[in-house]
């Protein structure tokens, strides 16, 4: 009887309050689950103080300890920033921050001569104010992460001036994309009738594909310098490998990622017969050295402020990263090309419209498949050593809690990938 009375009392609560309470409950449930997983992984960082026997011959104790301390610092930062974010979101909901911002947007529209009937205009002002608030409240955390944690562990290569200029540029570019797209989406919802959600979904899918297509050509160059990979053995071997699997490669670029961070990466982009490959300069063992040699041989001085800033950043590197040799770079690209050949990119786009956790599980499977594809290209041995080097260069911790890994990691941990490659490594 008491249970039924409690249920009756619950249903007597106004619907909007029940929804409000459910949103808060769900938000904190997800946060506590994520925190539980993070603490499991943090326990791994704390207790695993020696190199696992499986890695004894490929990872030295000093690198392992550096990686462990780096991940511990990142874990601590993630806990406090996550807690702040959750509390901030809760307070915004409890004290009516969203309705207040909507009313404020209406007042700004009124000052500009737009009445309540211009709800799309008001919505755009609301979005602008919301993203501005988010950028300002997130700025201290971003500054701490970049200039304390990343700086402490030798990854940050930015000056404060460069960081602030970059942050402002990112905000402006984001608004230039967000506001027009949002206005069209709101218009579609407004005129879509009973099937507005189908039209809205199709519109967001098209926008996603367009952004993926234009990002590297028109957006990324606003922030980083892209230069064609110089003619030479590496470029020739990349072209030969691409041709061997019918990958329609048109250009190979090197992006100057070292002006921000010494972390390394590589990716490809483009649709149909217009594919490009992008390599971070930090991935290439000799690329920065070649740049330096070219400038010294030519006797040229930096021509402008951007080049001078780039030279200062290169001089600022405290710990020269190892990078990968040409053969290892080719092995990494063989893995990435495996994603293309096996159709993983298209499958990810489709599945991402379903459920993110399923995407994580499938992505891990794709990583093993792409590793196996690189093996078929004869790159198992080089991929094995490249994964070790990249993990070392980026201070990746090779040991993970199984539940944390399953929930968060779209790429399997290093040990799992090495064990899978070990059985197929060429000798």
Overall geometric form: globular
Strand content: under 5%
* Strand arrangement in the largest pleated sheet: 1-2-4-3
Q: What's the rounded overall pLDDT mean?
A: 80
Which structural class should the secondary elements be placed in? Answer: mainly alpha
Give the ordered list of helices and strands.
HHHHHHHEHEEEHHHHHHHH
- Biggest β-sheet strands, sense, barrel: 4 strands, mixed
Number of helices in the DSSP assignment: 16
Radius of gyration: 25 Å
Q: How many distinct beta strands?
A: 4
Q: What is the CA–CA distance across the termini? A: 74 Å
Short description:
The chain has 427 residues and is mainly α. The chain is built from 16 helices and four strands.
Salient structural properties:
single chain, 427 residues, mainly alpha, 4-stranded mixed sheet, 16 helices, 4 strands, 5% strand
Overview of the structural elements:
The chain has 427 residues and is mainly alpha-helical. Helix content is 69%, strand content 5%. A 4-stranded mixed β-sheet has the order 1-2-4-3, with helices on both faces. A hairpin with a 5-residue loop joins strand 3 (266-269) and strand 4 (275-280). Helix 2 packs across helix 15 (402-408) and helix 11 crosses helix 14 (380-393). The longest helix has 34 residues, at 61-94. Residues 289-321 have low confidence and may be disordered.
């Amino acid at each position: 009887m008491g249970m039924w009375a409690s249920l009756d009392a619950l249903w007597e609560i106004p619907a909007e309050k029940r929804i409000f309470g459910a949103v808060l409950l769900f938000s904190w449930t997800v946060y506590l689950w994520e925190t539980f997983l993070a603490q499991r992984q943090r326990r791994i960082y704390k207790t695993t103080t020696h190199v696992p026997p499986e890695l004894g011959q490929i990872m030295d104790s000093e690198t392992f300890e550096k990686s462990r301390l780096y991940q511990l610092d990142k874990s601590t930062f993630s806990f406090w920033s996550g807690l702040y974010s959750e509390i901030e979101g809760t307070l915004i909901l409890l004290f009516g921050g969203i309705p207040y911002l909507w009313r404020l947007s209406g007042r700004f529209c009124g000052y500009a001569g737009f009445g309540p009937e211009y709800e799309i205009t008001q919505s755009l002002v609301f979005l602008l104010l919301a993203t501005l608030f988010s950028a300002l409240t997130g700025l201290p955390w971003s500054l701490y992460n970049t200039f304390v944690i990343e700086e402490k562990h030798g990854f940050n290569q930015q000056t404060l001036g460069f960081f602030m200029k970059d942050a402002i540029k990112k905000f402006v570019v984001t608004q230039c994309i967000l506001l027009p797209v949002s206005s069209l989406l709101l218009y579609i919802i407004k005129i879509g009738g009973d099937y507005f959600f189908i039209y809205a979904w199709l519109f967001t899918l098209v926008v996603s594909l367009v952004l993926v297509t234009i990002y590297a050509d028109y957006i990324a160059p606003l922030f980083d310098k892209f230069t064609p990979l110089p003619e030479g053995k590496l470029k020739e071997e990349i072209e030969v490998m691409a041709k061997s699997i019918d990958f329609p490669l048109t250009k190979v670029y090197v992006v100057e990622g070292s002006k921000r961070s010494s972390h390394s990466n590589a990716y490809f982009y483009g649709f149909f017969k217009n594919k490009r490959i992008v390599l971070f300069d930090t991935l290439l063992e000799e690329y920065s050295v070649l740049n330096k040699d070219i400038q010294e041989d030519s006797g040229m001085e930096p021509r402008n402020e951007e080049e001078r800033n780039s030279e200062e950043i290169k001089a600022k590197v405290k710990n020269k990263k190892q990078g990968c040799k040409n053969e290892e770079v080719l092995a990494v690209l063989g893995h990435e090309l495996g994603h293309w050949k096996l159709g993983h990119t298209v499958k990810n786009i489709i599945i991402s419209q379903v459920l993110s956790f399923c995407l994580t599980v499938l992505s891990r499977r794709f990583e093993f498949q792409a590793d196996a594809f690189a093996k078929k290209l004869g790159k198992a041995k080089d991929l094995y050593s490249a994964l070790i080097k990249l993990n070392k260069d980026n201070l990746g911790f090779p040991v993970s809690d199984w539940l944390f890994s399953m929930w968060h990691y779209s790429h399997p941990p290093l040990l799992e990938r090495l064990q899978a490659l070990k059985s197929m490594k060429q000798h």
